[in-house]
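Hey, resending since the last one bounced:
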Amino acid sequence: MKPMIWHPEEKDAKINEYFQTANHAPYITIWAMALILFCSLASIIVIGGF
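The structure tokens again:
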């Protein structure tokens, strides 16, 4: 059975570098889509009032 203590390996550093460059959430896109949705719903409500 393997010991339960984890020691970093060389490949772990490469994997972490890849995740730092490739795996980021698109916060700007999410924020922009939420803003567009909010403005669209607000304009529909305002236009529907007339």
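Residues 27-48 form the longest helix (22 residues).

Sorry for the duplicate.
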